[in-house]
Amino acid sequence: MGLSQSSFLLDSGTNCGYHVHGVQHDSPALKAGLEPFFDFILSIGNTRLNKESDLLKDLLKANVEKAVKLEVYNSKTQRVRELEVTPSNMWGGQGLLGASVRFCSFEGANENVWHVLDVEENSPAALAGLIAFDDYIVGADQVLQESEDFYSLIEASEGKPLKLLVYNKETGQCREVVVTPNGAWGGEGSLGCGIGYGYLHRIPTHPVPPKSEEEHMPLSPEKDEHTVLTTEDPGELGAPITTKESLCLPEVPQSEPATADHTEEDLNSAASDN
């Protein structure tokens, strides 16, 4: 069962939820089937989470060691699904869910990604296991809201291990990759790989048609330049990609990233306060 369209109408067009970033191994979140980067928690029990507050944390605390229903929107399939999770402080890791989340809009959720292009042999990118053209960098230990945030992070991490969340389009899965930027590795840039950003380098969506009347697609507000809840028409293309000379291969035109005001909510740290 999914949230009905009328549920989203009551949100006054605000398509927001708790964006799932990291999911710890053997955590309640992993066992429930939450998917990093693509999933947004919309409700817990029968309570819609349509604004940032302590409500999610409080509801998880109220259901410790008890199964509770989650409504989750997935930006890859563009569908809402129902999961069952059992918040726990006995599973062996941090937090009641074992997941890091932040409250934000899921409009344009798949736009802010960095596509791995050519990977040079023996480069830091190659040693980290990044796969040319199949891999997309979708996150890091800090929030990446704009195109330049990623490049700034790489420059600030010179010579230090950096954990990245990487999606592979062939496996359809996210994985953690540790890369050590090194401008002296013997080739071009500090990663030794090309990075694409923009319309042509977004993760392909795979819309899933509803299987029953109980499953619905979120009702989005009037489409603007930041809305990406349906597959876009290639005729609407802007400049396709952007790269950073200090990190990548040949310079290409730059496109403006979509931005939004976000705040960070980390369930791991929230649970540690209990």
UniProtKB/TrEMBL annotation:
Its main location: Golgi. It comes from Periophthalmus magnuspinnatus. This is PDZ GRASP-type domain-containing protein. PROSITE patterns: PDZ_GRASP (PS51865). Residues 211-227 have a biased composition (Basic and acidic residues). Zn(2+) binds at H19, H21, C104. Transmembrane segments: none annotated. GO terms for cellular component: Golgi membrane. One of its GO terms (molecular function) is metal ion binding. It is found in: Golgi apparatus membrane. Residues 206-274 are annotated as: Disordered.
